[in-house]
Amino acid sequence: MNKKKIQQIFIEHNIEEAKTIEKIEIGFTNKIYSINNRYIIKVCENKDNEKMFEREVFFYNFFKDKISIPKIMVFDTSKRIYDKIFMIYPKIQGDNLYAKWHIINNNEREFIIKELCENLKIINNEPYENFIKEFKLNADVDWRKTIINKINHSLKEIEEIKLLPWAFIKHIKWFIESNHHVLDEQKIGLVYRDIHFDNILVKDNQISGILDFERTELASIDYVLLIIKKMMEHPTKYMSEVWEKFAKKEDYAHLRNRFKEFYPELFEF
Questions:
Q1: Can you give the CATH number for the domain in which 117 is found?
Q2: What is the pLDDT of residues 44-74, one digit of tens each?
Q3: What's the domain count of the chain?
Q4: Exposure winner among 115, 169, 202, 250, fewest CB in 10 A?
Q5: DSSP 8-state class, residue 93
Q6: pLDDT of amino acid 27
């Protein structure tokens, strides 16, 4: 999306003149621009991602009075001005948490994780009937079956392209068969999965906003710990390139323990 097109969009939607336009190099799926340092326009450039984009807008409206998230001003699906769907919302002021994590102290880190856990509790405990109805989903979730199907689908692709030796694939299948019972115990709720620190905005060492809800789904609430585990093992995995040089594994080593302290329900099964 070029400058002229953005200016036209802002005129058409009676917002204000788009004078300064800055492309934000964060995120992997959509294009994001800061306008006049006051607004964000997020564009779904990939048509295959439109359903997920719509899901994000749904959750921004769904949780708007409950947690600090973007307040949608415009959601344009007409493709009249631009041939992609897009949303516009007032910019939440703050830095992404990756930019601050390496310079704040342990007490400040604990406070932020505690805040984050309080937000997760709100999301997890919110009734999800409207979400199910809106996106025509099945509310009867068998978590073990869901995860095993995902793994088996990936293994099938791995076999087809011969990415791993057959003996290793066989060992993986044996491991799954031996351990899948641990997934039988579940607590289903709305789960915000994209919890990595690029999506958490902080100002004065407090959470000012939480972004990217397109992967929020109906799942077992402990699923969020997968991202925490990956952040601990590979701190740069979700990090914007500009912050990678500051990533130290020891700074993320206690994440799991902090989540266990402030949200013990995630660890009860």
A1: 1.10.510.10
A2: 999 999 999 999 999 999 999 999 999 999 9
A3: 3
A4: 250
A5: P
A6: 62
